[in-house]
């Protein structure tokens, strides 16, 4: 097994890139950053049936399931009718 190590070079002669004071001041608002973090990571408190978009998605899924079950019942009744006709 031949393991090849990649050669990395570290340039210590270049100047470090530092953010501007305005950029640093923007990120020093810890309450705003904490609020945004909580908003992104915590689950929504609204139940699924009260959220308009999720309610519509659930309704569409239920309608599709209903239509599939109706089509399945129709195909079963047609196959039963065909089978009884063939027997007679």
Architecture overview:
This protein has a domain at 46-88. 61% of the residues lie in helices and 0% in strands. It has three helices and no strands. It starts with 20 loop residues before the first helix and ends with a helix.
Annotate the secondary structure layout.
Layout: H1 21-26, H2 30-41, H3 52-87
Helix content: 55-70%
Order of helices and strands: HHH
The shape, in one word, is: elongated
Helix count? 3
Q: What's the β-strand tally?
A: 0
**Largest sheet features:** none
Percent of residues in beta strands: under 5%
How many whole angstroms does the radius of gyration measure?
32 Å
Helix and strand content put the structural class at: mainly alpha
Spans of at least 5 consecutive residues whose pLDDT stays below 50 are none
State the end-to-end distance. Answer: 75 Å
Key features of this structure:
88 residues, mainly alpha
Summarize the structure.
By secondary structure, the chain is mostly helical.
């Amino acid at each position: 097994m031949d393991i090849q190590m990649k050669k990395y070079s570290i340039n210590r002669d270049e100047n470090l890139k530092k953010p501007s004071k305005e950029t640093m001041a923007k990120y020093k608002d810890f309450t705003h950053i904490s609020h945004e973090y909580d908003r992104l990571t915590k689950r929504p408190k609204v139940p699924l049936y009260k959220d308009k978009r999720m309610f519509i998605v659930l309704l569409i899924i239920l309608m599709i399931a209903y239509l599939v079950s109706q089509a399945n019942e129709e195909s079963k009744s047609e196959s039963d009718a065909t089978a009884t006709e063939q027997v007679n």
